[in-house]
Structures are given as C-alpha cells and as structure tokens.
Amino acid sequence: MEGTVKFYNESKGYGFITNDDTGKDIFVHVTGLNGETINEGDKVEYEESEGRKGLTATQVTLIYE
Question: Could you give the 3-state DSSP secondary structure of residue 53?
C-alpha cells in the first residue's frame, strides 16, 4: 500500500500515514519503520498489520520519486 505521512513525532516515535487510495489514516510506530526516518509529507510504501489497538503500518519504506 502507498500513502503520505500526515504527522510524525520523531521524539515520541509515532504518527499517522494517510492511505492514497482510501484516504483513511493508519497509525505508524517507530518499530514499523525499515530503518528510515520519515517526515510529514513523505510518500511511503507500507503493509498493514493488526496491532494492540487496531491496524498499524509496518515495513514502512520511503518512496523516492
């Protein structure tokens, strides 16, 4: 899946990604990043996994255009 980082707080290690197809937001935690740093507005590719409180983005990778 692809989306755009809506919000990410690096000091707290979490944020949200807006799915490009559905427009829905999905939670992302620092543990779901593939060793990359993400910032607001970045385009990313990710997978959805069931977390403790619902869907969570995992395997998050930056898309370089």
Answer: coil
* pLDDT tens per residue across span 38-56: 999 999 999 999 988 889 9
Between CA 42 and CA 60 the distance in angstroms is 11
Greater confidence, 51 or 4? Answer: 4
Cβ pair 17, 44 in contact under 8 A: yes
3-state DSSP assignment of residue 28 = strand
Which tokens is 36 given? 């990359």
Domain boundaries, the chain: 2-62
Tokens of 42: 């970045």
pTM higher than 0.70, yes or no?
yes
What dotted CATH number matches 2-62? 2.40.50.140
Beta carbons of 14 and 57 less than 8 angstroms apart: no
